[in-house]
Amino acid sequence: MKFHVLTLFPDMVMQGLMTSITGRAVQQKKIDIDAVNIRDYTQDKHGRVDDYPYGGGAGMLMQAQPVYDAYRSVADQFPENAKKRVVYVTPQGTPFTQQMAQDFARQDDLILLCGHYEGIDERVLEEIVTDYVSIGDYVLTGGELASMVIVDAVARLVPDVLNNEQSAETESFHGNLLEYPQYSRPEVWHEKAVPEVLLSGNQKKIESWRREQSIRRTLERRPDLLEDASLTLKEQKFLDSLLKEQGESRLKELEQ
Ligand code: ADE
Q1: Is there an atom of ligand 1 within 6 Å of 117 CB?
Q2: CA-CA distance, 31 to 158, in Å (whole number)?
Q3: What pLDDT is attached to residue 174?
Q4: Starting from the edge strand earliest in sequence, which strands make up the sheet with 2-7, in order?
Q5: What is the pLDDT confidence band of residue 175, given thresholds at 50, 70 and 90?
Q6: Is the Cβ atom of 138 under 6 angstroms away from ligand 1?
Q7: Which percentage of the chain shows pLDDT scores above 70?
């Protein structure tokens, strides 16, 4: 899979992504990352890529021409009728999710467009963008970090990017549950002992304890996820008992 990042700050993107697991994946040719400098495509003799917005208002806008030509430099590498996926990262986009990452991971190529200043001339967005994606309800200074987040989340789903021990399957959000707590050596640290069941060697018991912990944690931290979680009948009963406990302790708080 190849990621094409259209940006005014290619060094920022490459430095961030050429380290750690994504960097190794590039070296091993499991993925490829190409940061395209939008400024290289401006026709302005002073190298400018931004201008004032018509109608007034604060800040500058990235102009359509250099963004479009940078996009064409990538799009022209594909067969003419190839379906292109072009993601514009913007706080006005659809919130990014694991499911979206899985969807993007099915593409051979993914083009990400990073905005700066007050945004990009709407006309070029209309022509080239297929997906508007936000990485959260806050505003960054530019789209680079958001693009890097998306590349990272998608890259780890590409076959063989993670090694066997780092399976993308069993982690947080699998089955819409958060991951259970984990412990390593020593057995006691700061007077806190590792839960006994994990030392029991009884794999079935451990599995069931971990599932319960996942449910407990999801209820505490992200109850919104539980609606779509896949639970067995027994697990649903466990969740019901937790909810009942929660209700009872709320009642007690109200009585005090
Ligand atoms: N650009 C600026 N802020 C952003 C956000 N929250 N998500 C995606 N792109 C952005």
Answers
A1: no
A2: 8
A3: 72
A4: 32-37, 2-7, 109-114, 86-95, 131-134
A5: confident
A6: yes
A7: 97
- What are the φ and ψ backbone dihedral angles of 109, each rounded to 5 degrees? -130, 140
Measured in whole angstroms, the distance separating CA 159 from the mean position of its chain's CA atoms is: 17
Pairwise CA distance, residues 178 & 180, whole Å: 7
Can you tell me the distance from the alpha carbon of 250 to that of 228, in angstroms, rounded to the nearest whole number? 25
pTM over 0.85: yes
- Nearest partner of 110 among 93, 130, 132, 86, judged by Cα: 86
Distance 208 CA to ligand 1 centre (A): 39
Alpha helices in 10-160 (DSSP H): 10-17, 20-27, 64-75, 98-104, 122-128, 144-155
183 close to 194: Cβ distance less than 8 angstroms: yes
Query: pLDDT tens-digit profile of 224-253?
Result: 999 999 999 999 999 999 999 999 999 999
Residue 114's φ and ψ, nearest 5 degrees, are -105, 125
- Encoded amino acid at 46, one letter: H
Please indicate whether residue 119, judged by its CB atom, sits closer than 6 Å to ligand 1: no
Q: Are 133 and 94 within 8 A, CB to CB?
A: yes
pLDDT exceeds 70 at position 200: yes
Quote the CA–CA distance of 201 and 207 in Å, as a whole number. 11
Three-state DSSP at 212 gives helix
Distance between CA atoms of 74 and 77, rounded to whole angstroms? 6
Residue 187 phi, psi (nearest 5): -65, -35
